[in-house]
Amino acid sequence: MKTGLSFSYVARNLYARKLTTVLTAAGMALVVFVFATVLMMAEGLRHTLGGTGSDSNVVIIRQGSQTEVQSTITREQANMVESLPGLATSPEGRARISREVLVLVNMPRKGSGGLANVVVRGTTANGLEMRPQARIVSGRQFRPGSSEIIVGSAMARGNVGLRIGDSIAFGMRNWDVVGVFDAGSSGFDSEIWGDGEQMMQAFRRQAFSSLVVGLRDEGSYTGFVEALMRQPQIKADVKRERQFYADQSEKLANFIGILGKTITIIFSVGAIIGAMITMYASVANRTREIGTLRALGFRRGNIVMAFIQEAALLGFVAGAAGLFAASFMQMIEISTTNVQTFSEVVFRLVMTPGIAFQVLLFSMFMGILGGVLPALQASRLEIVDALRSA
Amino acid sequence: MSALISIRSLGKTYRRGNQPVPVLLGIDLEIAAGDYVSLMGPSGSGKSTLLNLIAGIDKPSSGTLLIDGVDIAALPENDLAAWRAANVGFVFQFYNLMPVLNAFENVELPLLLTPLGKAERRDHVETALAMVGLADRMDHYPNELSGGQQQRVAIARALITDPTLIVADEPTGDLDRQSADDVLNLLDRLNGELGKTIVMVTHDPKCAARARRLVHLEKGVLIDGGGEGH
Ligand SMILES: Nc1ncnc2c1ncn2[C@@H]1O[C@H](COP(=O)(O)OP(=O)(O)OP(=O)(O)O)[C@@H](O)[C@H]1O
Ligand SMILES: [Mg+2]
């Protein structure tokens, strides 16, 4: 049994006050835009770092070192890991293990000025084969045993802006950029890759930073980890490669999220007050109409519901507008320091259905919060008083 | 005829601040089912107040008010709302149509409180609008209709749920002579053809003369035509 005012009655009342509705919704949409953008930033970061690497690779770093840059692994430890069961082998029979060395190198940021800490990864033939997602998109691969480097596409595009033919100095040597690679918008795109042994010489390092191991199959992970833990020579932290980089996004993503939510809550107070003023005006303008509806037999509850729905719809409209505007932010790429690794990371803002849903819900909630008091006021009127009003 | 409306020493006192304002002072009145009563009297005499009490949108301060045997003042609020929806049709001086709804939707409004389905509602609304001569104006909005047409839509709305009682507070107060006549002719038909009991407040003796019975109110008391009628 239907016992309420129709949705179209609610919607048309909102539409009848076009200008007020648009202005109020614009204020709310601004808050929604900020909120959505922040969520998209956090999501973009997670998306980028979480999409780095593969589940069939394992990253090994020294226990407690958190990042590859801070970790050291000796040659002996590396040889021992190579002999463990569960490793994949290349068609030529080499064990799938890449001994990698990572250093942070300061490079000037173009537009904003300042310095970016760029990850320079010394890798191996194995390392390249284990990351098939990193494809050369221009120029060519670096030659092993040379001072050639390739740069991730984000480093080629973004603030750092390296180009093929550039020669850059670090580790008391000049390195020639010979190619640009794209790793599917993952964290690798923010790195510079070159020959591992060359880099160890240049930086006068004896130890590697991390080991990347290819598993025979994804299921051999547990067996491999257990075997590794039994070795007395090494105390290591082990994670699947994808998880390893995903975990590096958490601190910054959470920070962005908390900051964004704080700002959003503060702004939303203004938006809720705006919605409230609009809804009070709506009630005041329609006092006689409310009295009429009550006389016809609609209950106080029907009136409350109609005004709450109107406020929720106002919020929904604002949410949709804010979301629409925010969707254009997907074109924006952010280059910043990952507080967890102190290294430069470039990511694009990402909209997901989850974010859209969350933001619309939030916007409707703002509307409803603004609408509750006016709706209660509308329902509290005595019928005869409401009918007597102009 | 049995009395549809039975009023005994009905009193109504408003409060303005902490000052009591007595408006109705012991009204006795019986209105038979099918009667057509017009309520006259000077401004401020309490006509609207009495009509509102009969229509169940205001509560008496003293006395009894039975409608079809129901003591409506004793009904809980939501029951009273349901009672109004089922038993009373309202016609207001300023029509009180919903500006955002077209004629069809305005007339349909009270049916949203009934279990009727969409198709049945459509049938009812079309019949009612045809009866008031506005079948061709169904999709017009109130601001696209003349005052007289709006009042006819309001009458269609008042009769859509087939209530026993129709209350009208100065239904022609805002209309020109011709439109007023149209409205009064309609009320005649509601009373004569459909057997609706009508209570109408009016200032205009010509209007009042259209009713079967005249009741005169002055300073909160009936001075003429009260009691059980003729
Ligand atoms: N809600 C209220 N609060 C206080 N006083 C009221 C209220 N409603 C009506 N009154 C007073 O009661 C008296 C009678 O009002 P009512 O509206 O019944 O008169 P009326 O006969 O319909 O007059 P009119 O012809 O001008 O419409 C008036 O003095 C009015 O000011
Ligand atoms: Mg009056």
How are the SSEs placed, and which strands pair?
The complex is a heterodimer of chains A (about 400) and B (about 230).
Chain A: H1 7-16, H2 18-50, E1 57-62, H3 75-82, E2 97-108, E3 115-123, H4 125-130, E4 135-139, E5 148-152, H5 153-157, E6 167-170, E7 173-182, E8 191-195, H6 196-202, E9 210-214, H7 221-229, E10 236-240, H8 241-247, H9 250-285, H10 287-296, H11 300-327, E11 333-338, E12 343-348, H12 353-380, H13 383-388
Parallel strand pairs in A: 3-8, 5-7
Antiparallel strand pairs in A: 1-9, 1-10, 2-3, 2-9, 4-7, 5-8, 6-7, 11-12
Chain B: E1 3-16, E2 19-32, E3 36-40, H1 47-55, E4 62-67, E5 70-71, H2 77-87, E6 88-91, H3 103-108, H4 118-131, H5 147-159, E7 165-169, H6 177-192, E8 197-201, H7 205-208, E9 213-218, E10 221-224
Parallel strand pairs in B: 3-8, 3-9, 6-7, 7-8
Antiparallel strand pairs in B: 1-2, 1-4, 4-5, 9-10
The structure holds adenosine-5'-triphosphate and magnesium ion (MG).
Outline of the structure:
Chain B: One of its GO terms (molecular function) is ATP binding. Chain A is an alpha+beta fold and 390 residues long.
Description:
Chain A is α+β, with helices and mostly antiparallel strands and 390 residues long. Chain A has 13 helices and 12 strands. In chain A, helix 2 (18-50) crosses helix 8 (241-247) and helix 2 (18-50) packs antiparallel against helix 9. The mean pLDDT of chain A is 92. Chain B has helices at 47-55, 77-87, 103-108, 118-131, 147-159, 177-192, 205-208, and strands at 3-16, 19-32, 36-40, 62-67, 70-71, 88-91, 165-169, 197-201, 213-218, 221-224. The model of chain B has no long low-confidence stretch (mean pLDDT 93). The A-B interface holds A 1-6, 8-9, 12-13, 15-16, 288-289, 292-300, 382-384, 387 and B 52, 55, 57-58, 77-78, 81-82, 84-86, 90, 92, 94, 96, 98-101, 105, 109-110, 112-113, 115, 157. Adenosine-5'-triphosphate binds next to strand 1, strand 2 and helix 1 of chain B.
